[in-house]
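Hi there,

I know you've been waiting on this one. I reran it after we fixed the sequence typo, so this is the corrected version. Both the input and the resulting structure follow.
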Amino acid sequence: MSRFWSRIVHTLEPYVPGEQPRVANLLKLNTNESPYGPSPRALEAIGAAASDDLRLYPDPSSLALREAIGASFGLSAGEVFVGNGSDEVLAHVFQALLNHERPLLFPDITYAFYPTYARLFGIPYETVALDEGFRVRVEDYRRPCGAIILTNPNAPTGIALPLTAIRRLLEDHPDQPVVIDEAYVDFGAESAAGLIRDHPNLLVVQTFSKSRSLAGLRVGFALGQRGLIEALERVKDSFNSYPLGRPAQAGALAAWQDRDWFEHHTALTVAARDELSVALGGLGFGVLPSRANFLFARHPARAGADLARALRERAILVRHFARPRIADFLRITVGTPAECERLVEALREILARDA
């Protein structure tokens, strides 16, 4: 604490990301990173962009990347916004589109950055409880609000809403922005991007960090009708006109265009996820039905914190949230089949030791 802090700094409760320790032989299953390296085409493009041209500013609009993304969804470049990771995109969303007079709605169990952003930007918010099965019920959102934001599939539960539910939510709130955060959508959920043409209040946010293995490059994007995207551009250009450097734009474009790599590696992750879910069930865990690249699981006879600690002693990191309703759950990133096997064997040993 310093006497030079502003009033808002004193009131902040910063988001706490998953730890990134430097430990030998560490199995890192705590931050939902891909276990596979990026597309070779992306790596080649990044290397080529690391040239003498780095002395020049990048394209402030990332036009080539926006055109490529838009074409995949039947949208124009003007209906695509890109930023320095989806977290920056979301920060601009909170500044540009959310009503500061009426509350923002989001689930009580969801991405923990939402309340952090709301406090940072002075946006009132209310949480809406997930049901007993940890699912979003869109009928619970039929109340006065300024906007709604949902992660789909939800994090940390991994449970996805069908498009019919999202369409119903949009129709219930035609005068409020509805933001669907699709960080994990590529692992088996339905994207809401196809609803954009009929719903001017819909904004869809995605990332290159998960299904395209580029968490270290920091590229995210939003899709929506021109009015919403223009609002994001106005905030961006009042904050940082050059959010994506030349290597980031080149790498993201090449990764987006390498559809074969994307489809192959998402299929590998989905298969490993489903196999891991069965293996955890065989150890007595209750596992929520995931459409993400992670599982949310709890053991009926073991505290989540104790299991996370025992795994850490074996150089295996998983994510534990000491929060109401989910304190006994572990969020486990899906690794390679060999990494998943190492996790299962460690859990088997821990459960046998404590039996």
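Quick highlight: The longest strand covers residues 202-207.

Best,
R. S.
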